[in-house]
Amino acid sequence: MRIDECFYLGKIAKKFSFKGEVLAFLDTDEPEIYENLESVFVELNKTLVPFFIEKSHIHKSKFLRIKFEDFTCEEDADAIMNCHLYLPLSFLPKLEGNKFYYHEVEGFTVQDTRLGDIGVIQRINDSNAQPLFEILKGKTEILVPLIDHFIVKIDRENKTIYLNTPEGLVDLYLG
Length: 175
Known about the structure:
Layout: E1 6-15, E2 22-26, E3 39-44, E4 47-59, E5 63-68, H1 74-78, E6 84-88, E7 109-112, E8 116-125, E9 132-137, E10 140-145, E11 151-155, E12 160-163, H2 171-174
Parallel strand pairs: 7-12
Antiparallel strand pairs: 1-2, 1-6, 2-5, 3-4, 3-6, 4-5, 7-8, 8-9, 9-10, 11-12
């Protein structure tokens, strides 16, 4: 399994017991969806390695307490401390309407209600407090805040996202 075929689920945050159990911080709004996994991919030395889960359950709302198969002591847990967890993209629940996963809209054409075609989404930059659509129009990069009321419609079939941006925002880049 390659990392580009997966999504980031979370990170092994700390040891839980002397029997090799760990607490994984889950980077999701719905951690309960992932409570009964059979396995996860753990990133070790830039390689995804499957780890099988003996048992797991939610711990303090955002953590998943995990007992991996064949983990019997603290040293086992130490070996994966701070490692990232991944699952195949097929495990993501399907979203509908104007809800979407950031990776899902990469490559979508962007149509603005006022300006028409304003380019193609290269990625969504979520490294700041306000996520941004990074849109490429020719050689010009256009940054548009990812704000719900800017999004008119997501057309998955035609790989197009329709935005209604405020006057002047996109013009700033194209002028």
